[in-house]
Each structure stands twice: as structure tokens, then as C-alpha cells.
Design a protein that fits this description.
heterodimer, A: Rossmann fold, B: Purple Acid Phosphatase, chain A, domain 2, globular
Amino acid sequence: MLEAARAGDSVLLIAPTGGGKTLAGFLPSLVELAEAPREGLHTLYVSPLKALATDIARNLMAPVTEMALPIRIETRTGDTPANRRARQKLVPPHLLLTTPESLAVLIASPDAARFFGSLSAIVMDEVHALAGTKRGDQLALCVERLVELAPSVRRIGLSATVAHPEAIQAFTGANRIISVEDGAPPSMSIMLPEGHLSWGGHMGLEAAPQVMARIRDASMTIVFVNTRAQAELMFQALWKLNDPMVPIGLHHGSLEIEQRRKVEAAMAAGRLRAVVATSSLDLGIDWGGIDQVIQVGAPKGVSRLLQRVGRANHRMDEASQAILVPANRFEVLECEAAIQGAGARELDGDKPRPGGLDVLAQHLLGLACAAPFRPDDVYAEVRRAAPYAGLTREVFDDVLRFVENGGYALEAYEQWRKLFRDSLGLVHVRSARVALRHRMNIGTIVEAPMIKVRLVGKRGSFGPVLGEIEEYFVGLLRPGDTFMFAGRLLRFVRLREMAVECQEGGDGEPMVPAYEGGRLPLTTNLADRVRDLLRTPSSWETFPEPVREWLEMQRGVSRLPGRNDLLVETFPRGDRWYLVAYCFEGRNAHQTLGMLLTKRMERAGFGPLGFVATDYVIGIWSVNCPRNVATLFDQDMLGDDLEEWMADSSMLKRTFRNVAVIAGLIDRHHPGAEKTRRQVTVNSDLIYDVLRKHQPDHILLRATRADAASGLIDLDRVGGMLARIKGRIVHMVLSRVSPLAVPILLEIGRENVRAGDTEEKLLAEAEAIIAEATGQRRPAPVKSRKLQPSLFDA
Amino acid sequence: MTAAPVHLVGERLMLDPMGGLFWPETGLLAVSDLHLEKGSSHARKGSLIPPWDTHATLDRLTLLLRRWKPRIVVALGDSFHDPEGAGRLPKGELERLNAMTAAHRFIWVLGNHDPHPPNGIGGQFVEEFVTHPILFRHEAVPRADAGEIVGHHHPKASVPARGGNLSRPCFVVDARRVMMPAFGAYTGGLDVRDVAIARLFPRGGRVFLLGRDRLFSFAIGQLNGTAPHL
């Protein structure tokens, strides 16, 4: 690293966790400053986590103080008090540790040029976690600006081992990669619950007794789960078995930050024996004392599994210990595939997608707030950032026009434009007010509307805030209802001043808050490995007995899905027909495919009634027997049907909301307004409807479609699959449910959203049911609506 | 399209799924809370949201006029999002609006967003409008005589359905009054269980949620969740 620094090279350092790479990133800066002390900002460190910035500042401070080096180290995050931020601008520290959001605020300030002019090095930590995300887009744009302000600056990227090092190198803007060999490979094993191996379900609670026993055998365990709801349930299940008691904590992204910090501090101090956690603990500080990681539920990806396993035993020479606990039969396959993938170091992760146009819009306004700019120069600068390397001038101009005046075909807003151009062609921000407002709204993380959860006493006295739950979940609660949150059983009292007030205790079956986007879809790489396992019976030897029997039965009754074909089964059951397609493309892609397939089946007269999607399979049930199945999967389904469905899709609306907030169309914060955002802004769904009708090619709608295509509706994978399986559809016409189809049939009762239904249908149904229940209408003739399949009996 | 008939002080009224109310006996069509030029109102404060809201709202009003062919049109207040709103109407929209006010007897009830009659808009501007036995005003008066048709609160209701709640703008109806949903393209809503609306319907009532071709009717007590601020 020192040699690269002397040569003035920008470097990507790839090393496994625990390799001390963060300190390696700083070393050249410390040496330079010790050899030739000087004033002004020397090194900027950017981390995705505030806590990491603070922790690293502390770790650096110790040796610097000890050696009495003339080096000032400070952090700057959203938590930094205003007076310290002001002082930092007057007297910059030598080393500043910050986050992408705080960096963007600095870049948007008029003294950015002076502040960053002396910069020698930029250290970007955990770049593998930032590249390909909107926060990464923002960082890449800011770094290109820093290069403009300080042309000789060196860039250092720090990354875990990744599937596409050259993409991360481009993201960092490094001219070389330094790789440190991975340490001892982790030792991973599968642990099954005792007794019955579940056909369905994702929670894995049956394994709680064994998980508890493992916790008792180790000194410090992290129990990773996949969703916040699962974290709550697993924590409860463990707590019931916790006798004699060992201290266990709970950690997930909706808990109050104070609570999370307490749990982290207790871990660091060795006061906890186990923490049940979601991805909230995937990244972050090294705790050292962790000697065991238990992953409950399928890992969903090899890279993610390795990241989690790497949390145990942060010493390179020792193997990390990890136990995988599948929650059902399919997950046994997935866990096995993930262990093999990890052994082969076959990392997943698609190449980073192109940069978001909403982020670019935010950045352009930020640049104008700092100083007037020439569009030609900024276009060239933006294209030097890897996520925007392919940006055309046309699209750049559209984004700039959007920032200027909304970019509407109707030139209605000339007088209220945010930017103006002078006679030399320089772009200026219109007023100080526009700039102030922009700085209050910087950032690329948009949360779903959340409501605080507060404990209250018997007489209504205020207790602590426990965290936040999504607004829509609050809508489902009636007073007296109980729900699980923050590891407690709570009884809903009332909603007051935008907080859910609760008391501890209560009876009845508790609900568990669910969260949007809680589940990551299965990665392509892992899906391929699962398919390979399925089609290779010789590899089944390691599988537990019930799984082997299950697959053998499938082979006898139907077929096994192949590597490059698509197995589709149809069979009757009760008064329904079922179509099950083994696509293995992940939940998001399957949801989209389910929508499109049911539309086609409707046109073909099969009378589809609903569908359900998991990471592996789509199941559709219908009134009539589906025929000509291969034509249902024709590629042309991505044409008009897709357009029509996307128009009304709630996923697009949700994506649009995020795009509109990031691009600055909708404010998160309003200067001088105490009101919540909701009260001062127009509902984004209404804006979406109007914009789609009147300017369907508006830049924000294009940005929305691009985001959704790689995200919530995952068109990329749908399209890829349809092309791959063309002419290779294997249709098995069966007389009854196949062994492999049982899990998806079980899912039907469990997944309560039937996405095939329109809102209109659901409203009519609710109206009829309520009228029936209250005696205003005679009941409809009984049809067996929800058939719980009696478990497969072969 | 199926309208829902309701009765208020002996008069038969038709609720339209688009959010209008037609009184066949008098040939009167009422709409409420158009909030015209809400888009430009936000734009001048710095939020450049799409400018077609007036256009979209007038398109829907045109459909209603064609459907019911009323003699009298009553706009129940907050027709313009702010007092300068009428002055910011794009030329084409202003012409379209004035063609409507010329073709019908057009009554503008004043609201809190548009408390004064604007210049250049045809029709008659009033605080209240009475056609016996019904009184039209912008904001409900808590102990008013029976027979009141009002707007102002933008009522919406959410209904328990499979897969969660569904929320739509709605009419709220009891024996004494009809509260109309907001008609404007950018108008949000207030849940009918909020105390501001609930106190106006102390003995409960029915809600009629707007649908594509029909309304969906529920008693207020059958709705989910809890009212804020209770």
C-alpha cells in the first residue's frame, strides 16, 4: 500500500474480513502526515455505516495519540452537532471520517472547493456493499467531483472478496488491485430439526431447541435470520426455552437506534451469549468474541452467506464455524448448494447496474448549489463515474431539464424554475432558498412510511420508544390486539400523535409486523446450483433421508427439473386445476411472471383464480385444465400485457415514490415546517397517475421503470429465463399433485396476498362478506375456497 | 357504471362512482373540493410536481356532465387550491371551464382555500346554496338541520380485504347529511374514523367507497383499525 501511495496510484484492496484492511488503507496517510505535517484536509474516509466511521476514528486515535503525531481525526455524520460542523469547515481536520450522505452535503456547499482543495486521499470502505446501490451511485458522483477539486487525489477502495473485481475496480477508479489471500475456509454444516422435516414454512422455529443447545455450547453466537418478523418469532421461541437463563439479545433494522446500540455494546463487552439478528448485523464493527454463526432459513446467496459467516472468529488463520438450519425441504437443497458454492468460492452478485437517474438529479442540483457549472464539463465529469459511464448526452440533458423546471412537455413552470442559465451558458441555482431546501433533502435512503411504537403506563404515562413499524400494519390493528415487537408481547392501546401506544402483555394470538422488501430473492448463481443438485441423483447421498425419499418419489411420479429446461406440471385437485412451474428465478421475478401468466390464462379461457410465488416455484390454480402450456411461456408476454400490468402495479408506484423523493420532486423535509412530510406534499400515487397519463416518457417514469426492472419486478431475470427455456418446456400432465409441488400448495393458505386479484374484486368480496356476516345478504353457495391439501400421501 | 341511490330528508340522490352527486328531482349535479391548480401552487413554493392536475380534473368533470346532463352544477368549495389559483389557470383550461359555466347554471360555493370570488370565472359565487329542502355548504356545521350536503374533509375509508387494507375516497352518509369525497386529481384524504369526521356522524352512518364502475358500501362500524386522536 505504501509503495502504491508513493507512486500516486489509486488502489482497490481486496481482503477478507479481519485482515486489518481498514488500517492498511490509512497507513500511507498517517506516514505522509507524520513525515511532512501540514494543515488542511488530507484524507477523507467514507463508510456505509455511521457506527463504522465512529469506531474507526476511535481505533486510529489511539496510536496517533500514543506516538504524539500532529494529526487531527474527526467524524462528520448526521449526528454531528451543528457547532462542530461549522468549526470543521473553518479548521478542517487532517482525517475526516464520514458517510456518503454527509459527503454529498459538503459537496453541495459553496465552500466545497476550498475545503477539499488540499485533499490527498479518499478511502472508501466496504465498496462491495455500495457498488450497484443508489448510495454507491451518490458516492461515485461525489468522488468525481472531489477529483475535479483536487486533481492529484489518490483513491483507495476497500472490499471483501467479490465476484466481479474488475467492476469494483472501475467503481473505485483504481489503476491496480491488491488482493490478499482468503484465510482458512469456513467450516459449515447443516443442522436439521429433530423429528419431522417441514414441507413448507420459512421460519425454522422447529429447530429452536437445537439452536438453544448450540448457543449454550458456544461463548458468543449470532443467530442470523432473513426477515424482521422471523427475528421476532425466533427470539420468542428461544426465550421460551431459555432455562437456565443465558443473556440473549435481538437486533433488527426497525428497533430504536438506542436499543440497537445497547445490544451492540453488550456484545462488544461480552455480556451477551447470543444475538438474533437480520442483515442489520451483516456489515459493521468487528466484535472479535463471536465464535459461532447460525443461519436459520435459506441463505439466498453465497456471498451473503460468506459475509455472515465471516462475522465469526475475526482471525484469518482460524476457520469460522457456521451452522445452517433449513426451514423446509427446499431449503435443505439450498443450504447444501450454498455450502458447496462457498467451498468453491463461487461468489454471486450481478454486475452493478447503471447509476440511478434520480441520484444524478439530486447530484446536479447539489453541484449548482456549490458553484455555477457548464453542462458540457459536468457531463464529462459524470461520465467518468463508473455507474454513469454509459450515460448518453440526451438522457443527461433530460435529467438536467427536470432539475431546472420539472422537464414537463407543458412549459408551465418557467417562472418557478430551480436553475437558470446566464449569458455564458453557466447554470446557477435560482435562490438561497432552493439551495437550503436541497441540502435538507440530500440522501438516497427512502423508508416506507413508518410509525413509532411507544410503551405507555397504565395511566397513560409515556414510556420508551421501542422502534418503528410500517404504517400499513398499524391499519390492521384494533385496540386490544396483541403483536410481537422488540422481543416483547405488546397490546395495542391507541394511535396518538403519530405513535402507536402499547402496553406489555395481553392475550390472544399475537400478530407479527411484516416489512416491505424484507426478503432478498434467491441469487441466479445459487439457483443454478440447486438445479444441478436436483438433476444429479448421485449428489443426494449427503441429503437427509426424508429429502432423498422426496426426490426419489418425484423422479418416479413425474420428473426432476433439468439445468436448462423448464419443468411444468399440471394436475387436478378438488375442483381446481393446478399449474406448477419450476423456474428458480427468485420471488420477485416469479411474482411478475405469475401476473403475466394469469392474464394469458384468462384470455385462453382457463379461468385462473390465483397464484402464489416462492423463490423456486410458481403455482397457479384455475377452473379449467390449462392446455398448450408451452405457448403460455412465449417471450411475447413481455409486450403489451407487461405494459398494461405495469401501469397499475403497486410495485411501480412504490418504486416511483422512492425515485420522486430522491430526485427531489417530493420533499422529505421542508424548511421551517414542523408538519410531517405527509401534510405538505401531494401523495406520490396521485402524481404517478397524472404523469403517466400525460407524459409517459417523462424522465422520472423512465427512471422508475429501469429501477423496477432490476428490482421489484425483476424483468431482467424474467426476460433471461423466457429466452433460455424457449423450445425446452417439459410439460408433465399428472393425475394428482407431485411430491415436489407439495410445498407450493401448502404456501397457498399461508400467502394471503393473491396478486391475481384486482383491488376492485377484493373490495367487492369484502363488501359481500361483511353484508353476509351482518345478515344483510344470503350467503353465497359454499365452494371449497381454501383447500388445504392433506399432506402428500404416497 | 352503476350509481348508488341514497335518501336525504325524503329526497332521492344518486351517488356517482367518480365522486359526483346527482339530484334527479332538480337536475342538480354537485362536486366538491376540485382544488384546481394545486400543482402550480406547489410549484411556486418549489415543488415542481406535474402541471396537469387541472386538466385531469376537468376531464373527469366533463365526463360527469355528459353522463348526467345537469341543469345546475354546484362546486362545493375549495374549487381552487389557493386564492390566486384561478389567475394561474392555463388559457386552454380557463376556456374549457368557462364553457362549462356558460352551458349550465354554475354555482361556486366558497371554501376555506378560495374564500373570495376570483376574477374572470363565470357562474355565481355564494357562501351557501339552498334548494329546499337541501342546503349545500363547504364545511359541515355540527348541529345543523337535517338536509346538509358538504365537502371540505376529503373523506376516505379503508376496508379489511384479503391481503390487507384497501383505502379509497368515499361518501359518508347518515340521515342528516351527505359528506362528499374530494374530486381534484391531487387531493388526498382523511380517514373517516378521524375525530374531525367521526364527530359529525355521532350515530354512525354508511360509507360509499369509489370504484371504477360502482360504489362499495359499508357501515362505518365495519371498518378496520382505529381512528387517530380518539
